[in-house]
Amino acid sequence: MSLLHIAILAPLFYAILTGIIGIKLKGIHTGWLVLPVPTVIFGFFLSMIPIVQQGNGGLHELPWIPSLGINFSVYLDGLSLLFSLLISGIGMLVVLYSIYYLDKKREAVHRFYVYLLIFMGAMLGVVLSDNMMVLYGFWELTSISSFLLIAFWYNRERSRYGALKSMLITVFGGLAMFTGFLMLSAMAGSLSVREVIAQTGEIVGEPLFLPAMILILLGAFTKSAQFPFHIWLPDAMEAPTPVSAYLHSATMVKAGIYLVARFSPVFAGQPEWFWLVSGAGLCTLIYGSVRAMKQTDLKALLAFSTISQLGLIMSLFGLGSASAFFTGSADALFYTKATTAAVFHLINHATFKGALFMVVGIVDHETGTRDLRRLGGLMALMPITFTIAVIGAFSMAGLPPFNGFLSKEMFFTAVLQAAKMDFWNVQTWGVLIPVIAWIASIFTFVYSMILVFKTFLGKGKPEALEKTPHEAPMGLLISPVILASLVVVFGFFPNLLSYSLIEPAMAAVLPNMLSSGEQFDVHITFWHGWNAEIFMTLGVILIGILIFLIFNKYRLLNSPWTERFTLNRLYDKGLAGYEKGSSKVTKSYMTGSIRHYVIYIFAAFVLLLTYAIVDSGGVKIDTSGFAPVSFYEMVIIISMIGSVLVLPFVKNRLIAIIITGMSGYMVTLFFVLFRAPDLALTQMIVETVSVMLFLLCFYHLPKLRKEMVPLRFKWTNAIISIAAGAVVTLLALGASSDRLFASISDYYIKESYNLAGGKNIVNVILVDFRGFDTMLEIMVLGIAAFGIYALIKIDSGDEIIGLG
Amino acid sequence: MELYMALTIGVLFAVGVYLILSKSLLRIILGTSLVTHAIHLLLLTTARLKTGAAPLLGEKAESYVDPLPQALILTSIVISFGVTSFFFVLAYKAYQRLGTDDMEELRGREDE
Q1: Which residues form the signal peptide (chain B) (predicted)?
Q2: A572 pLDDT higher than 70
Q3: What is the CATH number of domain B2-98?
Q4: Hey, are the CB atoms on A648 and B18 less than 8 Å from each other?
């Protein structure tokens, strides 16, 4: 067990502790007890930066199920370190924020922190695990804890709806990913991610390679809310704001991005990977930015903006994967710029989006609403919150001097590079990449401005608000202030990050790019001259301002046609249809009629046996060993068949009972003829008693109103019963024709007297050779007797439940 | 002989199944006893209906018929008798309580 294991497991164990202590300690806000956990973990991961820069984060194994190759092995490299720092760092700030956000008297805060700690541990587990099964386990744990956190206010209907939706979608993707992992491990022969990466060369051509890629991407896309699986994220905004800030902007939704980055060394260099990842990313980018513009709820706006930014990061990882195509040549490093941008923007997005969510939380907390139509003019009332919002939103829009500007410039560089690629059919569609990116950036600019200007500027509407707005308490402001200052610091000094975090992360995403000792060039310059990117940014600002002004007046793009087709409706209708359909299917065959079920059983019996007979080349009938036909036997057979065939047409019950009894006596006669005296005796007695029983009950039946109702002949019944009879006939013939080996009965005949001292062989078998059967058969009779006794003894006056 | 026996078994089975598919509980029980007969005869037939003495060593014959299926059938007769009688009393009780022996009327309720 290494420190890394402890870092993963500590939050999980602490969650148990919190559950107990949180209830006991009423005086203190549980959050204060929780705060040290992410702080210590954050400190630990900070101290790991120099070690990881040297390139030896190290692999630590902890055997779990070694016989299946499942070990709790953790591996720390640049990528997992980056994510671990994000998770623990933002976790720390979110816990601090939530202490002031959640009222310990009105909310079940200990429950909140238990879920949050489980989530934190699970998320650390996802990014640090090297074993794919363990990774999957933690992955599902993040889905479950996210489900619990979204439905934190479980008495609200919308919360439960959002939680269920996110659960269904992310677990769907999680299971797809699990299948992909199984395929990968089947190809590579190992569950370790590092060993799979090491074997990339051998598994590329395998038939399971592409399915594994698609399934793993399905997991990544659902988790990271990529189009069209993004629909759960806006509904997840029913969660408390600290949860939205933590899970649904900074960490969990980046798990999919982590997955893409982690498996890039395996799949990069494939055109399918390039197109799927960049395509999904670009679609999500533009779709999210358009939808974000139209929201009136602040959190919904931020949700769509998160979707859009995640698409941006995803597309950058896709574009960066092109560099693997050139492994070894000078062009390779040219395309790694996209990966640099992806990693950089990943950090930036976590900072500014966390800050923005917290700002929205503060606005909600202090005014009682998040509705843009009721907000306005808060600038003078909440100056600090306003400042943070401006920093965050301007960074999101990509304006200088904030960090978003730098990553946006790098994004433009990457898309312009990608458009110039001349392989994988990029030349046909590649032109679209920078165009989409540019248009999406304009929309991003617009919604960022809406966020700031509609909330904080303009005329206030105090009469529309539930509370009198005022500045938030200091405690609520600490976390967003820290995040906003990070936005500014990374904006002015981006190279703080470049060799400490970005370069090691890139080395993990693109491990084969460099020979040992080399480093990626990730020097990020604030000003890079009058190039195309700058003009694109200027264009974004100009057109963005224009659209913002027009949008204000005409509510452009808000026409009904955009509302008509939404994926939410598809999801809701689909789910309802699914339920209705399955209920219809179930009702169509679960009719409650015994007759139908018996028909299914016999039809299946007939069909399966017929298939088996046909498949095995038919029944071979070999009459050579058959016994000769005697006169008496023929007489009985004819009378048996004759009497039984009358039975279906007999209307009178009494006659039916007597005919059935007759057939029983004829079976007795068969036993006599085929030299089975004991059977004949038993059969005769049993038949007599049965017929007596039948007649007794028949006599006692209260009324016989159905007796004279004419029998209806049913063709389906007839066909099925004839088919069943035919199959049994064939079976009887086949079985008596083919004898594979001699019977063991010679042994009984020989040894019956010698060993058991009896001359009646059947009786000796029953009580001596196979006495065990007889004992249990006695038990059956005993149970039947007791059952009948109990049935008769039930007082018939009793009310039967459900039949009143 | 086996050929004719196989036919008899088939007819017994077919009529038994037809009765089991009918509406009336009594006819269903009669159907099961026909199917039981068919199965017993099937057991006997598949062991070959060779002529030989009854499986009693006192006969001192050259060959005996196979005793093993007879033991199996004997066990089966007793078990099916137990089950049939229980089934019959159950049907009788159901009739007494519910006033019908029509299987279509004995369905579960819709909302279950």
Answers
A1: none
A2: yes
A3: 1.10.287
A4: yes
User: No. of H helices and E strands in chain B?
Assistant: 3, 0
User: What kind and span of H or E run contains A71?
Assistant: strand A70-71
φ, ψ dihedrals at A64, nearest 5°: -120, -70
CA distance A398 to A543: 14
Interchain CB distance below 8 Å, B73 and A686:
no
DSSP A760: B
> Among A350, A252, A355, A264, which Cα is nearest to A309's?
A350
A46: left (phi over 0), alpha (psi -120 to 50) or beta: alpha
Q: C-alpha A689: how far from its chain's center?
A: 61
Q: What sign for the dihedral angle of Cα A189, A194, A197, A201?
A: negative
Please write the tens of the pLDDT for every residue from A307-340.
Answer: 999 999 999 888 888 777 776 566 666 677 788 8
What distance lies between CA A54 and its chain's CA centroid? 37
Contact A193, A225 (CB under 8 A): no
Q: What is the gyration radius of the CA atoms in chain B, in angstroms?
A: 19
Q: How many alpha carbons fall within 13 Å on the CB side of residue A449?
A: 19
> Looking at CA atoms only, how far is residue B94 from chain A in angstroms?
10
End-to-end CA distance of chain B: 52
- Percent of chain A exceeding pLDDT 70 equals 89
Determine whether the interchain pair B21/A774 forms a contact, defined as Cβ–Cβ distance below 8 Å: no
Q: How far is A614 from chain B (nearest CA, A)?
A: 19
Q: For residue B58, give the nearest of A768, A753, A673, A766 by alpha carbon.
A: A753
Tell me the pLDDT band of A450, cut-offs 50, 70 and 90: confident
Q: Provide, as residue numbers in chain B, all residues whose Cβ is less than 8 Å from the Cβ of A737.
A: 2
Q: Give me the helices (H) in A521-566, please.
A: 532-554, 560-564
**Do B78 and A677 lie within an 8 Å CB cutoff?**
no
Using CB atoms, pick whichever of A626, A711, A785 lies closest to residue B3.
Answer: A626
Residue A777 has its nearest CB partner, among B13, B23, B79, at: B79
For helices A157-188 and A132-150, angle between their N-to-C axes, nearest 10 degrees: 180
Residue ranges of alpha helices (H) inside A368-402 are 383-397
Amino acid A80 reads: S
Q: What is the ipTM of this complex?
A: 0.94
Whole-angstrom Cα distance, residue A653 to residue A651?
A: 6
Give the Cα separation of A725 and B10 in Å (integer). 4
Q: Which amino acid is at A14?
A: Y
Residues of B in contact with A697 (CB under 8 A): 88-89, 91-92
Best residue of A678, A696, A699 to probe chain B, by most B CBs closer than 10 Å: A678
**Within a 13 Å sphere around the CA of A612, how many CA atoms are in the beta-carbon half?**
10
Task: Please give the DSSP secondary-structure letter assigned to residue A249.
Answer: I
Is the CB of residue A147 less than 8 Å from the CB of residue A140? no
Q: Is B1 helix (H, G, I), strand (E, B) or coil?
A: coil
Rounded to an integer, what distance in angstroms lies between the CA atom of residue A364 and that of residue A110? Answer: 22
Per-residue model confidence as pLDDT tens digits over A256-293? 999 999 988 888 878 888 888 988 999 899 888 888 88
Query: Which chain A residue has the Cα nearest residue B71?
Result: A762
